[in-house]
Every structure is written in structure tokens, then in C-alpha cells.
Amino acid sequence: MPPAGTIRSFTSVNAMPDLDMMASVAGGNSGGLEQPTVRKGNIMTTDSSTIAGLDEQQSIRVTKTLTGVLADHVVLRMKLQNVHWNIFGPLFHSVHTMTEQRYLALTPSIDAIAERIRALGHPAPGRLGYLLKQSCLDEEGDGQLLDDLLDSCQQVVQQTRACCQTATALGDEITADMLIGIIGDHDEFIWQLRSLTA
Ligand SMILES: [Fe+2]
To answer: Is CATH 1.20.190.20 the right assignment for the domain spanning 56-197?
Structure first.
């Protein structure tokens, strides 16, 4: 038996089931996929009772788009740190400070998105390789630190808005409400970055 508190693994990827496959079988059986099983003290439970008021198909669709948003934010946080560490020139101090504030502020947003996926009844992906594949961002960028950062922020806010619209359309106001706050923070940072580099 694993020690208390150990998360039982979810199939071989240890994070995300194949949501496309799950969507195709939602409403029926699990399609052979292992259900998320979490150890709570000495009780093993199948974590399928916390769909947050949505049916299975809806929760899968929200989770799928939310997973992309989580991945984008994780990659964006790394990009911000890269700029924070490597910026040089006359804007060094301003950019160094701004990017630190922003990557620190992203951490609770990332945590909230991941935990929302858990509340929707699915595992939160915690592997960098998986997240990199799910993100719309190009990790390499184009070599111009600030241009790439601005472009990345704009792509992330676009994806987050689309996710917010999907959640709203599916009746998941809680996810939508969470994302609205996150989008507002992005808009403010994009404005500051544009103003600094204009
Ligand atoms: Fe630092």
C-alpha cells in the first residue's frame, strides 16, 4: 500500500486521461479508462462525484479547454522568469521588477486553474512535458525578449477569453468568473508592458 496521502496514479501519463476519448464515451461507461482514484486517509474513493453541477460531457469540455489555459500560464510564467533573468540595457530595472511581480502573481492563478480542474472531477496535469505539448505558446520565442513576451501574453489572454466563453456557454459560471479576474490581470500587465516599450 502506498503511504497515506499518496495520489494513486491515473493511467500511464499520471496526469490526464485522453479527454477526447472520454468525451466520445461520456454518458456511457468509462471507455476502459481508469477513473481517478484518490487516497483519502484509509479510504479509496473514485473521484467522480465532484462534477461541480455539470454533467460529464460538460465537465470534460471545460476541463479540456482549461487544461490548455493551465499549460499556457505555466509556460508564460517561465517566459517571464527568463526575461527577468536575462533582460539588459536601459530598461533593465523596470522590466526586471515588472516581470518578477508578474510571475509571482501568476502562481496563485495557476493554482486556481489547476484546482478548478480537480473540482470538475479530473486530474490536474503536473508534468512539464505534457503541459508544453498542451500550450499554444512557442517556448523558444523569436529571440527578442520583450516582443516575444508581449506576444505570448496576448496569446494567453486570447486563449483564456476563449476558455471563459466556452465555460459560460456550458453553464460553468464558476470557471468563467475565475477566468475573468485572471484576464483582467493580463490586460493590466499588457498595458504596462506596451507603455514601457512604446
Ligand atoms: Fe529575481
So the answer is: no
